[in-house]
Design brief:
Layout lengths: L1 E5 L6 H11 L3 E3 L3 H10 L2 H4 L9 H18 L2 E5 L5 H13 L4 E6 L3 H10 L6 H13 L1 H14 L1 E3 L6 H14 L17 E9 L5 E6 L9 E3 L6 H13 L8 E8 L8 E10 L2 H4 L9 E7 L1 H7 L2 H16 L3 E4 L2 E2 L3
Parallel strand pairs: 1-3, 1-4, 2-3, 4-5, 6-10, 9-12
Antiparallel strand pairs: 6-8, 7-11, 9-10, 12-13
Length: 345
Amino acid sequence: MIVWINGSFGAGKTNTARELIDLIPNSTLFDPEVVGAGLRHLLPEKRLDEVSDFQDLPIWRRLVVSTATALLAEVGGVLVVPMTLLRQEYRDEIFGGLAACRIPVRHVLLAPDETILRARIAAREVPDTPDAKQRVRQWSYDHIEPYRAALPWLTADAYVVDNGRVDAREAARRIAEAVGSGDAAACEIVQTPAPTAETVAAGVLLFDERDRVLLVDPTYKPGWEFPGGVVEPGEPPARAGTREVAEELGLQLPAAPRLLVVDWEPPRTPRFGGLRLIFDGGRLPAADADRIRLPGPELRAWRFVGEEEAAGLLSPGRFERLRWALRARERGTVLNLEAGVPVGG
Protein backbone atom coordinates (compact mmCIF):
# COMPACT_ATOMS: atom_id res chain seq x y z
CA MET A 1 0.00 0.00 0.00
CA ILE A 2 1.05 3.59 -0.63
CA VAL A 3 0.03 6.64 1.37
CA TRP A 4 0.56 9.55 -1.02
CA ILE A 5 0.72 12.90 0.78
CA ASN A 6 -0.16 15.68 -1.65
CA GLY A 7 -0.38 19.42 -1.18
CA SER A 8 1.13 22.67 -2.34
CA PHE A 9 4.82 23.34 -1.96
CA GLY A 10 5.38 24.43 1.63
CA ALA A 11 2.30 22.62 3.00
CA GLY A 12 4.44 20.40 5.24
CA LYS A 13 4.35 17.14 3.30
CA THR A 14 7.87 15.92 4.03
CA ASN A 15 7.82 16.70 7.77
CA THR A 16 4.41 15.03 8.07
CA ALA A 17 5.66 11.99 6.15
CA ARG A 18 8.62 11.61 8.49
CA GLU A 19 6.28 11.63 11.46
CA LEU A 20 3.88 9.24 9.73
CA ILE A 21 6.41 6.44 9.30
CA ASP A 22 6.72 6.35 13.11
CA LEU A 23 2.95 5.84 13.40
CA ILE A 24 2.30 3.26 10.66
CA PRO A 25 4.02 -0.08 11.37
CA ASN A 26 6.44 -1.39 8.75
CA SER A 27 6.38 1.80 6.70
CA THR A 28 9.14 3.36 4.57
CA LEU A 29 9.62 6.89 3.31
CA PHE A 30 9.99 7.30 -0.47
CA ASP A 31 10.54 10.84 -1.73
CA PRO A 32 10.21 11.03 -5.54
CA GLU A 33 12.42 14.13 -5.42
CA VAL A 34 15.39 11.74 -5.39
CA VAL A 35 14.26 10.38 -8.77
CA GLY A 36 14.29 13.91 -10.17
CA ALA A 37 17.70 14.57 -8.66
CA GLY A 38 19.03 11.40 -10.27
CA LEU A 39 17.72 12.41 -13.67
CA ARG A 40 19.72 15.63 -13.46
CA HIS A 41 22.83 13.43 -13.57
CA LEU A 42 21.51 10.99 -16.18
CA LEU A 43 19.82 13.07 -18.86
CA PRO A 44 21.61 15.33 -21.33
CA GLU A 45 21.45 19.02 -20.46
CA LYS A 46 19.63 19.68 -23.73
CA ARG A 47 16.74 17.45 -22.60
CA LEU A 48 16.68 18.95 -19.12
CA ASP A 49 16.53 22.46 -20.58
CA GLU A 50 13.33 21.57 -22.42
CA VAL A 51 11.31 21.45 -19.17
CA SER A 52 11.02 23.69 -16.12
CA ASP A 53 9.87 20.88 -13.82
CA PHE A 54 11.12 17.28 -13.81
CA GLN A 55 7.48 16.13 -13.41
CA ASP A 56 7.05 17.12 -17.07
CA LEU A 57 9.54 14.39 -18.04
CA PRO A 58 7.70 11.15 -18.94
CA ILE A 59 10.73 9.20 -17.68
CA TRP A 60 10.27 10.71 -14.19
CA ARG A 61 6.66 9.58 -14.01
CA ARG A 62 7.56 6.06 -15.20
CA LEU A 63 10.47 5.82 -12.78
CA VAL A 64 8.31 6.90 -9.84
CA VAL A 65 5.98 3.98 -10.54
CA SER A 66 8.76 1.44 -11.12
CA THR A 67 10.80 2.63 -8.13
CA ALA A 68 7.80 2.51 -5.79
CA THR A 69 6.91 -0.96 -7.08
CA ALA A 70 10.48 -2.21 -6.60
CA LEU A 71 10.71 -0.69 -3.12
CA LEU A 72 7.52 -2.38 -2.01
CA ALA A 73 8.75 -5.68 -3.41
CA GLU A 74 12.00 -5.24 -1.48
CA VAL A 75 10.78 -4.00 1.91
CA GLY A 76 7.02 -4.73 1.93
CA GLY A 77 4.62 -2.90 4.18
CA VAL A 78 3.62 0.67 3.40
CA LEU A 79 5.34 3.37 1.38
CA VAL A 80 4.76 6.94 2.52
CA VAL A 81 5.24 9.27 -0.45
CA PRO A 82 5.32 13.07 0.06
CA MET A 83 4.97 14.62 -3.38
CA THR A 84 3.02 17.49 -4.89
CA LEU A 85 0.87 16.44 -7.87
CA LEU A 86 -1.15 19.36 -9.24
CA ARG A 87 -1.73 18.12 -12.80
CA GLN A 88 -4.55 15.62 -12.90
CA GLU A 89 -3.11 13.84 -15.93
CA TYR A 90 0.11 13.16 -14.00
CA ARG A 91 -1.88 11.82 -11.08
CA ASP A 92 -3.76 9.60 -13.54
CA GLU A 93 -0.57 8.27 -15.08
CA ILE A 94 1.22 7.54 -11.79
CA PHE A 95 -1.72 6.20 -9.80
CA GLY A 96 -2.90 4.24 -12.85
CA GLY A 97 0.54 2.68 -13.19
CA LEU A 98 0.50 1.71 -9.53
CA ALA A 99 -3.02 0.30 -9.86
CA ALA A 100 -1.85 -1.79 -12.80
CA CYS A 101 0.73 -3.30 -10.42
CA ARG A 102 -2.08 -4.02 -7.92
CA ILE A 103 -0.80 -1.42 -5.46
CA PRO A 104 -3.59 0.47 -3.66
CA VAL A 105 -3.00 4.18 -3.06
CA ARG A 106 -4.42 6.23 -0.19
CA HIS A 107 -4.37 9.80 -1.48
CA VAL A 108 -4.15 12.45 1.27
CA LEU A 109 -4.18 16.21 0.76
CA LEU A 110 -2.62 18.59 3.29
CA ALA A 111 -4.65 21.78 2.93
CA PRO A 112 -3.64 24.64 5.24
CA ASP A 113 -5.27 28.03 4.77
CA GLU A 114 -3.47 30.07 2.11
CA THR A 115 -2.42 32.74 4.63
CA ILE A 116 -0.77 30.06 6.77
CA LEU A 117 0.74 28.45 3.67
CA ARG A 118 2.37 31.72 2.63
CA ALA A 119 3.72 32.26 6.15
CA ARG A 120 5.24 28.76 6.12
CA ILE A 121 6.88 29.40 2.77
CA ALA A 122 8.40 32.62 4.11
CA ALA A 123 9.77 30.78 7.16
CA ARG A 124 10.87 27.68 5.24
CA GLU A 125 14.48 26.55 5.70
CA VAL A 126 16.24 26.79 2.35
CA PRO A 127 19.88 26.78 1.12
CA ASP A 128 21.80 29.52 2.88
CA THR A 129 22.57 31.80 -0.06
CA PRO A 130 20.45 34.81 -1.05
CA ASP A 131 19.90 33.58 -4.62
CA ALA A 132 18.92 30.08 -3.50
CA LYS A 133 16.55 31.39 -0.84
CA GLN A 134 14.79 33.64 -3.32
CA ARG A 135 14.60 30.94 -5.99
CA VAL A 136 13.23 28.21 -3.72
CA ARG A 137 10.68 30.45 -2.04
CA GLN A 138 9.56 32.01 -5.31
CA TRP A 139 9.06 28.50 -6.73
CA SER A 140 6.67 27.74 -3.87
CA TYR A 141 4.83 31.04 -4.24
CA ASP A 142 4.49 30.52 -8.01
CA HIS A 143 2.73 27.18 -7.42
CA ILE A 144 0.03 28.54 -5.12
CA GLU A 145 -2.17 29.54 -8.05
CA PRO A 146 -1.85 26.15 -9.82
CA TYR A 147 -2.63 24.53 -6.47
CA ARG A 148 -5.72 26.71 -6.08
CA ALA A 149 -6.81 25.79 -9.62
CA ALA A 150 -6.31 22.07 -8.85
CA LEU A 151 -8.33 22.11 -5.61
CA PRO A 152 -11.66 21.03 -7.20
CA TRP A 153 -10.27 17.71 -8.42
CA LEU A 154 -7.86 17.31 -5.50
CA THR A 155 -10.56 17.63 -2.86
CA ALA A 156 -12.80 15.24 -4.81
CA ASP A 157 -10.00 12.69 -5.14
CA ALA A 158 -8.14 12.85 -1.81
CA TYR A 159 -8.81 12.66 1.92
CA VAL A 160 -8.33 16.26 3.09
CA VAL A 161 -6.42 17.13 6.27
CA ASP A 162 -6.40 20.77 7.37
CA ASN A 163 -2.96 21.05 8.97
CA GLY A 164 -2.97 24.81 9.18
CA ARG A 165 -3.06 25.02 12.97
CA VAL A 166 -1.47 21.73 13.96
CA ASP A 167 2.12 20.52 13.87
CA ALA A 168 3.46 17.73 11.67
CA ARG A 169 3.04 15.11 14.41
CA GLU A 170 -0.66 15.86 14.84
CA ALA A 171 -1.24 15.95 11.07
CA ALA A 172 0.48 12.56 10.82
CA ARG A 173 -1.67 11.19 13.63
CA ARG A 174 -4.82 12.26 11.79
CA ILE A 175 -3.60 10.62 8.58
CA ALA A 176 -2.67 7.39 10.37
CA GLU A 177 -6.09 7.29 12.02
CA ALA A 178 -7.87 7.90 8.69
CA VAL A 179 -5.84 5.20 6.95
CA GLY A 180 -6.44 2.73 9.76
CA SER A 181 -10.19 3.40 9.91
CA GLY A 182 -10.67 3.33 6.15
CA ASP A 183 -11.77 6.97 5.97
CA ALA A 184 -8.78 7.57 3.70
CA ALA A 185 -9.89 4.83 1.32
CA ALA A 186 -7.93 3.48 -1.63
CA CYS A 187 -8.42 5.53 -4.79
CA GLU A 188 -11.06 4.06 -7.06
CA ILE A 189 -9.08 3.58 -10.22
CA VAL A 190 -9.27 0.84 -12.80
CA GLN A 191 -6.52 -1.76 -12.61
CA THR A 192 -5.27 -2.36 -16.13
CA PRO A 193 -2.26 -4.68 -16.20
CA ALA A 194 0.51 -3.46 -18.47
CA PRO A 195 0.69 -5.50 -21.69
CA THR A 196 3.51 -8.00 -22.03
CA ALA A 197 3.35 -8.28 -25.83
CA GLU A 198 1.82 -6.56 -28.84
CA THR A 199 -1.93 -5.99 -28.52
CA VAL A 200 -4.92 -5.41 -30.78
CA ALA A 201 -7.17 -2.57 -29.65
CA ALA A 202 -10.52 -1.41 -31.03
CA GLY A 203 -11.79 2.16 -30.74
CA VAL A 204 -15.27 3.34 -31.75
CA LEU A 205 -16.11 6.83 -33.00
CA LEU A 206 -19.57 8.09 -32.08
CA PHE A 207 -20.89 11.35 -33.53
CA ASP A 208 -23.54 13.91 -32.65
CA GLU A 209 -25.80 15.72 -35.11
CA ARG A 210 -22.99 18.27 -35.75
CA ASP A 211 -20.54 15.47 -36.60
CA ARG A 212 -18.51 16.12 -33.48
CA VAL A 213 -16.83 13.00 -32.12
CA LEU A 214 -17.30 11.63 -28.60
CA LEU A 215 -14.18 11.38 -26.40
CA VAL A 216 -13.83 10.03 -22.86
CA ASP A 217 -11.43 11.02 -20.07
CA PRO A 218 -9.88 7.97 -18.35
CA THR A 219 -8.98 8.16 -14.66
CA TYR A 220 -6.02 5.81 -14.99
CA LYS A 221 -3.92 7.47 -17.71
CA PRO A 222 -3.32 10.97 -19.06
CA GLY A 223 -5.22 12.49 -21.95
CA TRP A 224 -8.55 11.75 -23.57
CA GLU A 225 -9.47 8.67 -25.58
CA PHE A 226 -12.05 7.13 -27.88
CA PRO A 227 -14.39 4.60 -26.31
CA GLY A 228 -12.74 1.23 -26.77
CA GLY A 229 -10.06 -1.06 -25.45
CA VAL A 230 -7.97 -4.16 -25.95
CA VAL A 231 -9.47 -7.02 -27.96
CA GLU A 232 -9.67 -10.15 -25.82
CA PRO A 233 -8.27 -13.48 -27.08
CA GLY A 234 -10.67 -15.08 -29.56
CA GLU A 235 -12.85 -11.95 -29.75
CA PRO A 236 -13.77 -10.32 -33.09
CA PRO A 237 -12.44 -6.71 -33.08
CA ALA A 238 -15.78 -5.12 -34.07
CA ARG A 239 -17.51 -7.00 -31.27
CA ALA A 240 -14.80 -5.83 -28.87
CA GLY A 241 -15.59 -2.25 -29.83
CA THR A 242 -19.32 -2.66 -29.21
CA ARG A 243 -18.57 -4.43 -25.90
CA GLU A 244 -16.37 -1.55 -24.78
CA VAL A 245 -19.03 1.02 -25.74
CA ALA A 246 -21.56 -0.88 -23.62
CA GLU A 247 -19.15 -1.19 -20.67
CA GLU A 248 -17.86 2.38 -20.81
CA LEU A 249 -20.97 4.33 -21.80
CA GLY A 250 -23.87 2.00 -21.03
CA LEU A 251 -24.99 2.10 -24.68
CA GLN A 252 -25.88 -0.80 -26.97
CA LEU A 253 -24.98 -0.16 -30.60
CA PRO A 254 -27.75 -1.34 -32.98
CA ALA A 255 -25.32 -2.82 -35.52
CA ALA A 256 -21.68 -3.79 -35.88
CA PRO A 257 -19.60 -0.66 -36.51
CA ARG A 258 -17.86 -0.15 -39.85
CA LEU A 259 -14.05 -0.25 -39.99
CA LEU A 260 -12.36 3.06 -40.84
CA VAL A 261 -8.67 2.70 -39.98
CA VAL A 262 -6.12 -0.01 -39.34
CA ASP A 263 -3.01 1.52 -37.74
CA TRP A 264 0.15 -0.38 -36.84
CA GLU A 265 1.68 1.20 -33.75
CA PRO A 266 5.40 0.40 -33.56
CA PRO A 267 6.94 -0.71 -30.27
CA ARG A 268 8.49 2.16 -28.34
CA THR A 269 9.91 1.37 -24.92
CA PRO A 270 8.16 0.77 -22.57
CA ARG A 271 5.18 0.12 -24.88
CA PHE A 272 4.88 -2.97 -27.08
CA GLY A 273 2.68 -1.43 -29.75
CA GLY A 274 0.38 -3.51 -31.97
CA LEU A 275 -2.66 -3.02 -34.19
CA ARG A 276 -5.10 -0.17 -33.49
CA LEU A 277 -8.48 -0.41 -35.25
CA ILE A 278 -10.92 2.50 -35.45
CA PHE A 279 -14.59 1.85 -36.22
CA ASP A 280 -17.47 4.15 -37.13
CA GLY A 281 -20.25 3.72 -34.55
CA GLY A 282 -22.50 6.22 -36.35
CA ARG A 283 -24.50 9.17 -35.06
CA LEU A 284 -25.72 9.05 -31.50
CA PRO A 285 -29.29 10.34 -31.07
CA ALA A 286 -29.67 12.99 -28.37
CA ALA A 287 -31.85 10.63 -26.35
CA ASP A 288 -29.04 8.05 -26.31
CA ALA A 289 -26.50 10.66 -25.25
CA ASP A 290 -28.74 11.50 -22.29
CA ARG A 291 -28.51 7.85 -21.20
CA ILE A 292 -24.71 7.75 -21.05
CA ARG A 293 -23.50 6.45 -17.69
CA LEU A 294 -19.77 6.34 -16.98
CA PRO A 295 -18.05 3.74 -14.78
CA GLY A 296 -16.61 5.91 -11.97
CA PRO A 297 -13.34 4.03 -11.36
CA GLU A 298 -12.48 4.06 -15.08
CA LEU A 299 -13.83 7.22 -16.74
CA ARG A 300 -14.50 10.63 -15.25
CA ALA A 301 -16.03 12.57 -18.17
CA TRP A 302 -17.17 12.51 -21.79
CA ARG A 303 -17.78 15.20 -24.38
CA PHE A 304 -18.39 15.78 -28.07
CA VAL A 305 -15.59 17.74 -29.74
CA GLY A 306 -14.66 18.99 -33.17
CA GLU A 307 -11.44 18.01 -34.91
CA GLU A 308 -9.60 21.16 -33.83
CA GLU A 309 -10.53 20.72 -30.18
CA ALA A 310 -9.64 17.03 -30.32
CA ALA A 311 -6.08 17.99 -31.30
CA GLY A 312 -5.63 19.56 -27.86
CA LEU A 313 -7.11 16.61 -25.96
CA LEU A 314 -5.64 13.56 -27.66
CA SER A 315 -2.04 12.42 -27.73
CA PRO A 316 -0.36 13.13 -31.10
CA GLY A 317 -0.58 9.48 -32.17
CA ARG A 318 -4.25 9.16 -31.29
CA PHE A 319 -5.06 12.45 -32.99
CA GLU A 320 -3.42 11.29 -36.23
CA ARG A 321 -5.50 8.13 -36.02
CA LEU A 322 -8.64 10.23 -35.55
CA ARG A 323 -7.71 12.63 -38.34
CA TRP A 324 -7.33 9.83 -40.87
CA ALA A 325 -10.43 8.04 -39.57
CA LEU A 326 -12.46 11.18 -40.26
CA ARG A 327 -11.02 11.33 -43.79
CA ALA A 328 -11.88 7.65 -44.32
CA ARG A 329 -15.42 8.31 -43.10
CA GLU A 330 -15.81 11.21 -45.53
CA ARG A 331 -14.56 9.08 -48.45
CA GLY A 332 -16.42 5.91 -47.51
CA THR A 333 -13.21 3.90 -47.48
CA VAL A 334 -10.80 2.11 -45.14
CA LEU A 335 -7.26 3.44 -44.61
CA ASN A 336 -4.19 1.40 -43.74
CA LEU A 337 -1.73 3.30 -41.54
CA GLU A 338 1.69 2.61 -40.11
CA ALA A 339 2.53 4.80 -37.10
CA GLY A 340 -0.28 7.14 -38.11
CA VAL A 341 0.85 7.53 -41.74
CA PRO A 342 -1.16 6.07 -44.69
CA VAL A 343 0.58 3.36 -46.69
CA GLY A 344 -0.25 1.33 -49.78
CA GLY A 345 -1.71 4.14 -51.85
